[in-house]
Amino acid sequence: MNGDEQLLRGRVYDHDGPDPGLRLGRTYAELVGGPLDGLLLDIHGWRAEEADDGVALITELGRWPGGRALYDPRPGEPRKPGPGIVCRFYYPGDTP
Question: Which of 69, 61, 67, 59 minimizes the C-alpha distance to 90?
Fold first, then answer.
């Protein structure tokens, strides 16, 4: 793990701004594996169908700098009722 990756661990993903940090009453997915491993993604207010689709997150740390790291929930993995960290999204790969 390089220095950039160590700085990201335990933070909330926010590509466009400074780390907003955890906010009381919000719902998060933990990102597992890949370049954003350990980050939390704010999914507060997402419908179940939206979360089921997974995400493509912009990152400079992936295979293609400025590309997207893909993260998906595992089918059948339960979600806890929010707020807090309610689920995990897993890394299957990158896309330009």
Answer: 69
What H or E segment, with its residue span, contains residue 3?
A: helix 3-8
84's enclosing H/E stretch is strand 84-95
Residue type (1 letter), 6: Q
| pLDDT for the residue 17 | 60
Dump pLDDT digits (tens) for 3-57. 444 444 458 886 566 656 778 888 999 999 999 999 999 999 998 888 899 999 9
CA angle (94 as vertex; 96, 14 as ends), nearest 5: 90
Q: Are 21 and 14 in contact (CB under 8 A)?
A: no
Q: Are strands 40-42 and 27-32 parallel, antiparallel or unpaired?
A: antiparallel
Q: Contact at 8 Å (CB) between 47 and 35?
A: no
The rounded Cα 34 to chain-centroid distance in angstroms is: 10
pTM of the complete model: 0.81
